[in-house]
Amino acid sequence: MSRKSTAFLMIPVFLAILAGPLAAQEKVDAQARLKELAKKAKEQGDQAAEAEASQELPEGLRQLTHNGKGKRESQPEWDADLSGIYFVEKGGGVGRIMRLDLKSAAVDTIVAHDFFNASQPAVSPDGKFLAYQTRRVDTHESIWIRRLEDGLEGKLSEDVEVLETGPAWNAQGGKLYFNRKTPNSQNHRAVSCLKNGDAMKVVGREQGSYYAPTLSMDGEQVAWLHRHGRDTKIVLMNTELTALTRDVRTPGYTVAAMDWLPDGESMIVSYMDNSNPDHGFDIGLLNLENGSIELLVDLGHYDSDPCISPDGTHAVFVANPQGQQDLYLLALPSEPNMED
């Protein structure tokens, strides 16, 4: 065989030998390029997240928590001395009651069970007791009272067959209001009782259910959300639950949550415009005289659970403008500008 033919035959062998390192080098180069692209994508994502997190809020509004999408916060409740806010944090399928210290921003766990939800915190006016809703193994959802000093707690009612939700304290701290449903009823009734469970009074014989009681700051009235089918209204009663003081309807709007303002004639509410339900819920001022609502806050699809500070100067509420559910603090106008 000639040298020429031999050399020709050696070319494929040489190329085959060379192809191994070249393919490996190309693979390394491709991996490097992918890593570089991934690094750039992460940097861009971090920059976008930082820009989103630093998004400016309207004047008088401040974000209190930044828990991310792994947790959801709801149902804020002011501490009696304005030093902190209790709230519900839900993550991993279980709800816990937490407390945010407004000065230090520290968050402490107040009520947590491995398998039972804790929700709807309500602090007594003297700051010594916490009423909340939970469900233990042998009961329906029920209200428990916890002494904050040492954690000693007990169930408000001895009846394990009823469902009880939405606790709210009276101005003196000796009585609780909530809604109650028995096994043989389709409706939730309005209820009051002493904090030891005695002297229980149940009202509400009309059709429909009573929910989410809230007490006026002067201690003279209690308001309930009343629902019958698709019809929702606000029912105002005296604190003895012996007389109806007013029915308040909100034409064109559905109220989902509420709390009294100091003037006793207006409320801060979470509401939906019935003409545009896809928009979700906003925070507004409700005129109890005529049912009109003035927009206060629109941060996204879900603005809810407004709660007025005991001194009437601020409101805390829940919103999810970036898809995560956090607490926000709103400075209230000194005099609500309500339209007649």
What keywords describe this structure?
alpha+beta, 2 domains, Neuraminidase, 24 strands, 340 residues
Describe this structure in words.
The longest helix has 51 residues, at 3-53. This protein folds into two domains: 1-54; 58-331, TolB, C-terminal domain (Neuraminidase, 6 Propeller), CATH 2.120.10.30. 15% of the residues lie in helices and 44% in strands. The protein is an alpha+beta fold and 340 residues long.
Write the CATH architecture name of the largest domain: 6 Propeller
- SSE sequence, one letter per element: HEEEEEEEEEEEEEEEEEEEEEEEE
Distance between the termini: 110 Å
Largest sheet: 4 strands, antiparallel
| General shape | globular
The percent of residues in helical segments reads 10-25%
Strand count: 24
Strand fraction = 35-45%
- The tally of domains stands at 2
Give Rg in angstroms: 29 Å
Model regions low in confidence, pLDDT < 50 over at least 5 residues: 1-24, 41-54
Q: Quick one: CATH class of the largest domain?
A: Mainly Beta
User: What value does the average pLDDT take?
Assistant: 84
CATH superfamily of the largest domain: TolB, C-terminal domain
- What name does CATH use for the topology of the largest domain? Neuraminidase
